[in-house]
Design brief:
118 residues, mainly alpha, two-stranded antiparallel ribbon, 4 helices
């Protein structure tokens, strides 16, 4: 959890440094900003998924660490891809739907468990 917090803080600092010091016309600075925001979104999503919640006075176990990190990385990739599509003026409802649907299908396939042989 601390590592994710440090990754989140570092990526936000990188994004703030890029916005504050770089020329917005420079392609490298735009790419670095998109990457930093994608990493920040992924780390934040993984932190929310790992948080254990209390319901009705008893502890509900949190999500497994590997699954939360995978889903956080997928969320960060979706955010970065949508930001990149917005920058190159290729973002529309249709392209956003295809991007999100592709990642949803990939998550469904990866998280599916094989049927029992009984």
């Amino acid at each position: 959890m601390r590592v994710l917090a440090l990754v989140l803080l570092g990526s936000i600092l990188v994004a703030a440094a890029v916005v504050g010091t770089r020329d917005p016309e420079d392609p490298m600075s735009v790419g670095l900003l998109v990457l930093a925001l994608g990493v920040a979104a992924g780390a934040l999503a993984a932190m929310f998924l790992l948080r254990a919640r209390r319901r009705a006075g008893r502890r509900v176990p949190g999500m497994r660490r590997g699954m939360a990190l995978r889903r956080g990385a997928e969320f960060g990739a979706v955010v970065a891809l949508l930001l990149w599509l917005r920058i190159v003026d290729g973002l529309s409802i249709i392209t956003a739907s295809f991007v999100i649907a592709a990642f949803a299908v990939a998550e469904f396939i990866v998280s599916a468990r094989p049927a029992s042989s009984r």
